[in-house]
Amino acid sequence: MAEETKKSTNSGREAFQKAIDETESLFEKNLTYLSAGALGLSLTFIEKITKLDSATAIQFLVLGWILLSLTLAINLVSHLISRHYIRKSQREYDKKDRGVFARIKKRNAIISTINWATVTLLILGIASIVIFTSINAFNQ
Questions:
Q1: Are 80 and 111 spatial neighbours (Cβ–Cβ below 8 Å)?
Q2: DSSP symbols for 98-134
Q3: Number of structural domains in the chain
Q4: Are 52 and 46 in contact (CB under 8 A)?
Q5: Chain segment 22-47, per-residue pLDDT in tens
Q6: Cβ-count burial of 71 within 10 angstroms (0-12 exposed, 13-18 middle, 19+ buried)?
Q7: Which one of 60, 111, 131, 134 has the minimum C-beta count within 10 Å?
Q8: Is the pTM of this model over 0.90?
């Protein structure tokens, strides 16, 4: 009976971990698609609708581009850091290091902070481009 309970607990835990892994993968993909898509749309808007020589409030456009570019760059760095942390944690776990779980918790907090920062940059970048677009759409 205890063996069945242990198997059930392990398979439940594995299901949670699989869901976490899938969610994190989708988060990174969607973040990349949204920031790259917003950059592309803003370039199309400039090319097709508003010419830079007649545009106003260009600082919002430039700020949006910078923020979206930072979003992409930090997201890539976050992926590399996360991979580094996973490998480091795996080595510590294999060595039966007693402090591994405390360090994993700290590392996860760092990655979570980076993820929230990228979401914030994405929102601010899109907002900047929307402000630029709105100002110039009404001025045309």
A1: no
A2: TTHHHHHHHHHHHHHHHHHHHHHHHHHHHHHHHHHHH
A3: 1
A4: yes
A5: 887 788 888 888 888 888 888 887 77
A6: buried
A7: 134
A8: no
